[in-house]
Fold these 2 entries.
Entry 1:
Amino acid sequence: MGLSSFFKNLFGSTKESVTELANNAESTFEQAKEAAAPYIEKAETFAEETIDKVKEVSEPYIDKAADYANQAKETVSEYADKASDAISDVIDTVKEKTASLTSDADTPETITETVADVSEKSAAAVEEIGDEADKA
């Protein structure tokens, strides 16, 4: 009997000790949570203020970037028009020279189609650059 009562007392007191430790841990956690609440609020306020400052500071740069993108779009469009005109001139010159050198009627047409394809790709690239500039 002495041995069984020893184990009952040992494990019974262990159970009480564990329950007491759990209650203390819960109490300590609640105290820590309450103590940290003001610091958490300060950190949230600091983060919000910092984000607002970053937005305020970066706004002019974003506007400038949009302006530069629009200028680039205009410049590219201007040069695309000039390139298209130059390609048309080249086509005309090639047609004239090839017409005098050959009697094959398919060659000028093939050259015209090839140059027209290149011209269309250039125009598509200009539009794509313009669309990307508008997105920025």
Entry 2:
Amino acid sequence: MRHIPNLITLLRMLLTVPLAWLLRDGRYDLALLVAVVAGLSDALDGFLAKRFSWQSQLGGLMDPVADKLLLVACFVGLAEVGALPAWLAVLVIGRDVVIVAGAVAYHNLVGPLTAEPSFLSKLTTVLQIALVLATLLHLSRFAEWPRWLNLGLLVAVTATTVASGLDYVVRWSLRAWRETHKQQGGPL
């Protein structure tokens, strides 16, 4: 039973394929439905893991990967159909690549690290999800959004994506510098 949250997370990862396909095919109503199911599954696996103490190291790694896969699929798919600017998809993916590359470098050069998403990083993810959902709602014709709302979300996502990427680079660079100096016995 304790593997149910991991199974739900794996199924959420698999939803990336139909989501990307639906976006490319212009089936925005179904893409929105898949995105909502993915979001609900994220809430469900988190609830089950916490409620029944079914957390695992594997689940802790898989959950953010599943979220990133879905967001990347959405940003790429929406950029591909012209609903979001391509530069925004590049920015969102670039930030994640920088964070992962930095984590791997830190782990290999300095030592083990624990994932510590900052408030800014969490805000970035919430705004990215809001922009994707607002765009899908608009495209699916379930709701008409004022143009300024999408523009505001676009500006907010751009600003927080850049700021949180820089925040990660600065914070983890300083941490790496301090740790290596501590290991070498030098002054901080």
